[in-house]
Design goal:
By secondary structure, the protein is an alpha+beta fold. It has helices at 3-13, 19-38, 84-91; strands at 43-45, 49-56, 59-62, 69-72, 75-82, 104-107, 110-113. The chain has a domain at 49-80. The strands form three sheets. The protein has a three-stranded antiparallel beta sheet with strand order 1-2-5. A hairpin with a 2-residue loop joins strand 6 (104-107) and strand 7.
Length: 119
């Protein structure tokens, strides 16, 4: 799935949402995750997984074409650890581990949860 397909999925789930609003929402979530990781924070989304940044130390690598030794600088790399629910969904029939979605309706820009009556 690519970002545009994710936007389409959001629009199908919330039919009252305009495409530009769905794009803005997806961009906002991705930007928030990126900014948190860049600032050294960990991002945990319950039922989905956790994003973090890991330090890689400097090392000596090899150029595969020439075999020459090449220094590789230290860097930070993004890491993702899937939640138990995601791991179970991938290793079972894929339906039992996923949580049921609550019914949500959009009206006049406000989000109202049908099942509980509170946002």
């Amino acid at each position: 799935m690519i970002k545009s397909e994710l936007v389409e999925c959001v629009m199908r789930t919330y039919p009252g949402l305009y495409q530009r609003d769905a794009e803005t929402a997806v961009e906002a979530v991705l930007d928030a995750i990126t900014d948190a990781l860049a600032n050294g924070n960990r991002v945990e989304i319950r039922g989905f997984g956790a994003f973090s940044a890991k330090e890689r130390r400097s090392r000596v690598g090899r150029n595969p074409r020439t075999g020459q030794r090449v220094p590789v600088a230290a860097k930070r790399v993004p890491m993702f650890k899937a939640s138990k629910e995601i791991r179970e969904a991938l290793n079972h029939d894929g339906t039992a581990a996923l949580r049921p979605r609550r019914a949500v309706s959009l009206s006049a820009g406000a989000v109202e949860r049908d099942s509980e009556g509170s946002p």
